[in-house]
């Protein structure tokens, strides 16, 4: 793959000021609060230039939207690795550790390397006299790590919006918009359209854009903006990828979007000398003249070519903490970071499908969310409809860990939410802490066939893992 190489950064570290990993974490935690008077990429571009333009040293795929970005990035990563490519992945946000955000071939960046690159970056920022936002710093840590490891492609999850997101210093070869849904219960239709237009800011000249959204009005806006920005519009996703049951209905759209992204990148951006395996899942071999020889037929019989359909049927469909079924726990635990009504609807569908696959003997949903994240009429209707069809109860608790950079506000009103759910004749209880709710759920369920669902926010997933570690 031909990539323009820029001169390496000549920054030297002052060892007396070198930060430990813990100090780097504290520095990042503190810089999520950095505010800009106007939206701009000026700061991140200056740091990028001082580092030797790591943003220009790697080919990139950007993934924006409201729901499903991390899973789409994960599926795209696995597909491109199947093609023999070295793949860097930048996720957002993290659950426990900042190193979860940056991966090389699906392996998280080592803590020591993360610390070294962060120190180099912080040193540059201080020398330039700038104040950088944590997302800007993390984006450049990821790009620096990927460029140093000569990745063939870097997949970057867009943190917020698109046009002024730090990841947009890259000129994406291929980009995706997953779904555009209301961020919270106070989002208006006008604000939703503005979010869509902001997300389309990742499209530049010659960028291929693929949409996973199904709303015709949204698709028309996307296509028009793509053409105006001299990008290339690819046909939106129509069908679900054939994942193993029950994941086809849950994640099939993300997988189909990932397949299209990976295929476009391989076809449009990978040069002839790139390392691609001969039995590519994504590209069709050139036609052969004449009939195959007996030897060729025998080889195909002994070594049948794996198809993309077979690949999806064998795919691993969990992504740690974002949708993860911990079947070894007693009772089993399902983690989902769904934090808006659209994502909650998808989660409830997933629970029903799991119930059809294996009859549940007891179900408890434990939810904690931000003040304006879920508590509205649509959420209450979804909960009422679900529990009409599925026996179980819901426990409501407050947010306990305000994770830096996860965009969650203060906790919802636990008593108000519980009372509203009870008014619909759904079994609901309020708890002061997650630990109390989880202990109560465990005692009320069958260990072998019960299910506890933990959802509503990134923070409650973080709380689950911290409580689990504390109780070991």
- How are the strands ordered across the major sheet? 4-3-2-5-1-6-7-8
Averaging pLDDT over every residue, what do you get?
88
Order of helices and strands: HHEHEEEHHEEHEHEHHHEEHEHEHEHEH
* Rg estimate, integer Å: 23 Å
Structural class: alpha/beta
Strand segment tally: 14
H/I helix tally: 15
Helix content: 40-55%
- Percent in strands: 5-15%
Unreliable spans are 1-9, 272-277
Shape: globular
Biggest beta sheet summary: 8 strands, mixed
N→C terminal distance: 48 Å
Short description:
This protein is an alpha/beta fold. It contains 15 helices and 14 strands.
Written account of the structure:
40% of the residues lie in helices and 12% in strands. The termini are far apart. Strand 12 (393-396), helix 13 (414-422) and strand 13 (428-430) form a beta-alpha-beta unit. Helix 3 packs across helix 8, helix 4 crosses helix 5 (134-148) and helix 11 (341-357) packs parallel to helix 12. It has an 8-stranded mixed β-sheet, with helices on both faces. It has a 6-stranded mixed β-sheet with strand order 9-10-14-11-12-13, with helices on both faces. It is globular. The protein has helices at residues 21-30, 42-50, 69-82, 111-128, 134-148, 189-199, 216-228, 247-269, 294-302, 308-313, 341-357, 377-389, 414-422, 434-444, 458-470; strands at 60-64, 87-90, 102-104, 107-108, 153-157, 174-177, 208-211, 232-233, 323-326, 332-336, 363-367, 393-396, 428-430, 451-455. Residues 1-9 and 272-277 have low confidence and may be disordered. The protein is built from 15 helices and 14 strands. The longest helix has 23 residues, at 247-269. With 472 residues, the chain is an alpha/beta fold.
């Amino acid at each position: 793959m031909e990539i323009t190489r820029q001169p390496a950064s000549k920054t030297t570290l002052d060892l007396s000021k070198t930060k430990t990993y813990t100090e780097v974490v504290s520095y990042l935690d503190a810089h999520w609060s950095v505010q800009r008077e106007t939206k701009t990429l000026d700061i991140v571009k200056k740091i990028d230039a001082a580092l030797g333009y790591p943003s220009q040293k790697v080919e990139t795929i950007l993934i924006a939207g409201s729901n499903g970005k991390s899973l789409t990035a994960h599926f795209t990563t696995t597909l491109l690795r199947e093609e023999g490519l070295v793949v860097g992945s930048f996720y957002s946000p993290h659950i426990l550790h900042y190193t979860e955000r940056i991966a090389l071939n699906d392996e998280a960046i080592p803590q020591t390397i993360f610390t070294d690159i962060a120190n180099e970056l912080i040193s540059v920022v201080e020398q330039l006299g700038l104040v950088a936002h944590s997302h800007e710093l993390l984006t450049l840590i990821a790009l620096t790590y990927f460029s140093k490891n000569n990745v063939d492609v870097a997949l970057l999850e867009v943190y917020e919006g698109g046009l002024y997101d730090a990841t947009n210093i890259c000129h994406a070869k291929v980009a995706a918009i997953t779904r555009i849904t209301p961020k919270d219960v106070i989002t208006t239709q006008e604000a939703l359209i503005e979010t869509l237009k902001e997300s389309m800011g990742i499209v530049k000249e010659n960028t291929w854009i693929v949409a996973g959204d199904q709303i015709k009005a949204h698709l028309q806006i996307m296509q028009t903006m793509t053409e105006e920005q001299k990008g290339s519009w690819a046909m939106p996703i129509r069908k679900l990828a054939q994942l193993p049951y029950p994941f086809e209905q849950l994640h099939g759209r993300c997988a189909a979007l990932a397949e299209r992204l990976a295929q476009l990148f391989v076809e449009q951006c990978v040069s002839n000398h790139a390392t691609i395996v001969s039995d590519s899942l994504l590209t069709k071999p050139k036609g052969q003249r004449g009939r195959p020889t007996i030897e060729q037929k025998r080889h195909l019989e002994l070594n049948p070519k794996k198809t993309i359909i077979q690949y999806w049927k064998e795919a691993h469909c969990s992504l740690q903490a974002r949708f993860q079924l911990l079947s070894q726990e007693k009772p089993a635990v399902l983690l989902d970071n769904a934090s808006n009504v659209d994502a909650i609807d998808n989660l409830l569908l997933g629970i029903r499908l799991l119930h059809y696959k294996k009859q549940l003997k007891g179900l408890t949903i434990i939810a904690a969310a931000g003040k304006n994240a879920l508590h509205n009429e649509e959420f209450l209707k979804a909960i009422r409809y679900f529990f009409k069809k599925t026996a179980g109860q819901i426990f409501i608790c407050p947010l306990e860990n305000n994770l830096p950079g996860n965009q969650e506000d203060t906790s919802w009103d636990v008593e108000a939410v519980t009372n509203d759910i009870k008014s619909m004749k759904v079994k609901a209880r309020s708890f002061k802490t997650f630990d109390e709710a989880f202990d109560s759920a465990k005692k009320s369920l069958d260990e072998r066939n019960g299910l506890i669902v933990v959802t509503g926010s990134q923070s409650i997933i973080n709380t689950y893992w911290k409580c689990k570690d504390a109780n070991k």
